[in-house]
Amino acid sequence: KDHHGAWIYLRRLSRFLPGHGGVNQLGGVFINGRPLPQVVRKRIVELAQQGVRPCEISRRLRVTHGCISKILSRYHKTGSLKPGLMGGSKPKVATPIVVQRILQLKHKNPSMFAWEIHDRLVLERVCDQNCVPSISSINR
Fold first, then answer.
1. pLDDT of 33-65, one tens digit each?
2. Hey, which CATH number is domain 96-139, 3.30.1460.10, 3.40.190.10, 1.10.10.10, 3.10.180.10?
3. What residues does 31 pair with on adjacent strands?
Protein backbone atom coordinates (compact mmCIF):
# COMPACT_ATOMS: atom_id res chain seq x y z
CA LYS A 1 0.00 0.00 0.00
CA ASP A 2 2.26 2.79 -1.28
CA HIS A 3 -0.54 5.34 -0.81
CA HIS A 4 -0.94 4.60 2.94
CA GLY A 5 1.70 7.21 3.83
CA ALA A 6 -0.24 9.83 1.88
CA TRP A 7 -3.34 9.20 4.03
CA ILE A 8 -1.29 9.51 7.22
CA TYR A 9 0.08 12.82 5.91
CA LEU A 10 -3.44 14.10 5.14
CA ARG A 11 -4.73 13.04 8.56
CA ARG A 12 -1.87 14.91 10.29
CA LEU A 13 -2.24 17.96 8.07
CA SER A 14 -6.00 18.12 8.68
CA ARG A 15 -5.33 18.71 12.41
CA PHE A 16 -3.68 22.02 11.52
CA LEU A 17 -6.58 23.10 9.31
CA PRO A 18 -9.63 22.69 11.55
CA GLY A 19 -12.89 23.02 9.67
CA HIS A 20 -11.19 22.49 6.31
CA GLY A 21 -10.78 18.75 6.30
CA GLY A 22 -12.77 15.71 7.12
CA VAL A 23 -13.60 12.14 6.36
CA ASN A 24 -15.63 11.36 3.23
CA GLN A 25 -18.51 8.86 3.11
CA LEU A 26 -16.01 6.09 2.30
CA GLY A 27 -13.77 6.78 5.29
CA GLY A 28 -11.07 8.58 3.29
CA VAL A 29 -9.40 11.68 4.68
CA PHE A 30 -9.51 14.89 2.64
CA ILE A 31 -8.78 18.59 2.97
CA ASN A 32 -11.19 20.98 1.28
CA GLY A 33 -9.70 22.70 -1.74
CA ARG A 34 -6.49 20.67 -1.69
CA PRO A 35 -5.65 18.10 -4.36
CA LEU A 36 -5.16 14.43 -3.55
CA PRO A 37 -1.51 13.47 -3.04
CA GLN A 38 0.34 12.56 -6.23
CA VAL A 39 0.83 8.90 -5.19
CA VAL A 40 -2.94 8.47 -4.80
CA ARG A 41 -3.63 10.16 -8.15
CA LYS A 42 -1.07 7.86 -9.77
CA ARG A 43 -2.64 4.78 -8.18
CA ILE A 44 -6.09 5.79 -9.48
CA VAL A 45 -4.75 5.90 -13.06
CA GLU A 46 -2.81 2.63 -12.64
CA LEU A 47 -5.89 0.79 -11.39
CA ALA A 48 -8.00 2.20 -14.23
CA GLN A 49 -5.37 1.07 -16.76
CA GLN A 50 -5.56 -2.43 -15.23
CA GLY A 51 -9.27 -2.45 -16.02
CA VAL A 52 -10.54 -1.79 -12.50
CA ARG A 53 -13.88 0.04 -12.66
CA PRO A 54 -14.09 3.54 -11.13
CA CYS A 55 -16.61 2.42 -8.48
CA GLU A 56 -14.17 -0.29 -7.33
CA ILE A 57 -11.23 2.16 -7.34
CA SER A 58 -13.38 4.45 -5.22
CA ARG A 59 -14.01 1.72 -2.64
CA ARG A 60 -10.40 0.49 -2.56
CA LEU A 61 -8.78 3.90 -2.18
CA ARG A 62 -11.60 5.53 -0.20
CA VAL A 63 -11.83 8.38 -2.68
CA THR A 64 -15.22 9.61 -3.89
CA HIS A 65 -16.45 8.52 -7.30
CA GLY A 66 -16.63 12.17 -8.41
CA CYS A 67 -12.97 12.70 -7.56
CA ILE A 68 -11.99 9.49 -9.41
CA SER A 69 -13.95 10.63 -12.47
CA LYS A 70 -12.38 14.08 -12.44
CA ILE A 71 -8.83 12.71 -12.18
CA LEU A 72 -9.37 10.10 -14.91
CA SER A 73 -11.08 12.61 -17.19
CA ARG A 74 -8.20 15.07 -16.83
CA TYR A 75 -5.68 12.28 -17.40
CA HIS A 76 -7.45 11.12 -20.59
CA LYS A 77 -7.64 14.70 -21.92
CA THR A 78 -4.16 15.92 -21.00
CA GLY A 79 -2.09 12.86 -20.10
CA SER A 80 -1.20 14.64 -16.87
CA LEU A 81 -1.66 13.57 -13.26
CA LYS A 82 -1.22 17.13 -12.04
CA PRO A 83 -4.18 18.74 -10.32
CA GLY A 84 -5.91 21.73 -11.89
CA LEU A 85 -4.86 25.25 -11.06
CA MET A 86 -6.26 26.71 -7.88
CA GLY A 87 -7.42 30.29 -7.76
CA GLY A 88 -5.07 32.75 -9.34
CA SER A 89 -5.74 36.29 -10.33
CA LYS A 90 -7.57 37.41 -13.42
CA PRO A 91 -5.61 39.30 -16.05
CA LYS A 92 -5.55 43.02 -15.43
CA VAL A 93 -7.76 44.90 -17.88
CA ALA A 94 -7.21 48.42 -16.59
CA THR A 95 -4.12 49.13 -18.68
CA PRO A 96 -2.55 52.60 -18.48
CA ILE A 97 -4.39 53.63 -21.67
CA VAL A 98 -7.74 52.47 -20.25
CA VAL A 99 -7.10 54.22 -16.92
CA GLN A 100 -6.11 57.41 -18.74
CA ARG A 101 -9.33 57.38 -20.78
CA ILE A 102 -11.47 56.75 -17.66
CA LEU A 103 -9.81 59.73 -15.94
CA GLN A 104 -10.37 61.93 -19.01
CA LEU A 105 -14.06 61.00 -19.14
CA LYS A 106 -14.52 61.61 -15.40
CA HIS A 107 -12.70 64.95 -15.59
CA LYS A 108 -14.72 66.07 -18.61
CA ASN A 109 -18.03 65.02 -17.04
CA PRO A 110 -17.79 64.36 -13.25
CA SER A 111 -21.46 63.30 -13.03
CA MET A 112 -21.01 60.55 -15.63
CA PHE A 113 -22.04 57.12 -14.32
CA ALA A 114 -19.60 54.21 -14.28
CA TRP A 115 -21.87 52.20 -16.58
CA GLU A 116 -21.75 55.07 -19.09
CA ILE A 117 -17.95 55.09 -18.95
CA HIS A 118 -18.00 51.30 -19.33
CA ASP A 119 -20.16 51.54 -22.46
CA ARG A 120 -18.10 54.42 -23.83
CA LEU A 121 -14.84 52.45 -23.54
CA VAL A 122 -16.36 49.75 -25.74
CA LEU A 123 -18.00 52.23 -28.13
CA GLU A 124 -14.71 54.11 -28.61
CA ARG A 125 -12.88 50.80 -29.03
CA VAL A 126 -10.55 51.55 -26.12
CA CYS A 127 -11.57 48.05 -24.97
CA ASP A 128 -13.56 45.26 -26.51
CA GLN A 129 -16.51 43.64 -24.74
CA ASN A 130 -14.28 40.83 -23.40
CA CYS A 131 -11.69 42.99 -21.66
CA VAL A 132 -13.55 46.10 -20.51
CA PRO A 133 -13.10 46.81 -16.77
CA SER A 134 -16.05 46.05 -14.51
CA ILE A 135 -18.25 48.87 -13.25
CA SER A 136 -16.86 48.39 -9.73
CA SER A 137 -13.30 48.75 -11.12
CA ILE A 138 -14.28 51.96 -12.91
CA ASN A 139 -15.76 53.33 -9.67
CA ARG A 140 -12.42 52.80 -7.94
1. 667 888 888 999 999 999 999 999 988 888 888
2. 1.10.10.10
3. 21
In DSSP notation, the chain reads -TTHHHHHHHHHHHHTSTTTEEE-TTS-EEETT-PPPHHHHHHHHHHHHTT--HHHHHHHHT--HHHHHHHHHHHHHHS--PPPP---PPPP---HHHHHHHHHHHHH-TT--HHHHHHHHHHTTSS-TTTPPPHHHHH-
> 21-23 and 29-31: which strand pairing?
antiparallel
Domain 5-78: assigned CATH number:
1.10.10.10
CB neighbour list of residue 139: distance below 8 Å, 6 or more residues apart: 114
Does the pLDDT at position 110 exceed 70?
yes
pTM above 0.85, yes or no: no
Q: Which of 121, 105, 104, 124 is nearest to 132 (CA)?
A: 121
Q: Is pLDDT larger for residue 78 or for residue 107?
A: 107
